[in-house]
Amino acid sequence: MKIAEKYTLSEQDIDRIIEMAWEDRTPFEAIEFQFGIPEKEVIELMRQEMKLSSWKMWRKRMNTRGTKHTAKRNDDVNRFKCSRQKSISSNHISKR
């Protein structure tokens, strides 16, 4: 069963999850908090939605990133996004 069907995700949700998974500063816990999808299933979703070469490149990057897991982060970082980033509401970056 595809992850998108299991969680009834729209195309916009899938795009946002992929975007968040690519970001170095966004931990998997933030994706789980926002969409209810645990890390293991985010990895599976990425595998299903991406080309094999892109998925392999992403996995290689994620295995070397300490910022993708809240437990591995520096204690000074206690947010899901950069402090200079504009407010995000309903997964859309607010316009000026």
Largest sheet: 2 strands, antiparallel
Beta-strand residue percentage: under 5%
For the terminal residues, how far apart are their CA atoms?
Answer: 41 Å
**What topology, given as strand order, has the largest sheet?**
1-2
Keywords:
96 residues; 4% strand; mainly alpha
Write up this protein.
The N and C termini lie far apart (41 Å). This protein has one domain (3-90). It is built from 5 helices and 2 strands; from the N terminus they run αααααββ. It is globular, with a radius of gyration of 14 Å. The protein is 49% helix and 4% strand. The model has no long low-confidence stretch (mean pLDDT 78). It has helices at residues 3-6, 11-22, 28-35, 39-49, 52-63; strands at 88-89, 92-93. With 96 residues, it is mainly alpha-helical. Strands 1-2 form a two-stranded antiparallel sheet.
Question: What's the topology here?
Answer:
Blueprint: H1 3-6, H2 11-22, H3 28-35, H4 39-49, H5 52-63, E1 88-89, E2 92-93
Antiparallel strand pairs: 1-2
Brief digest:
The relative contact order is 0.15. 49% of the residues lie in helices and 4% in strands.
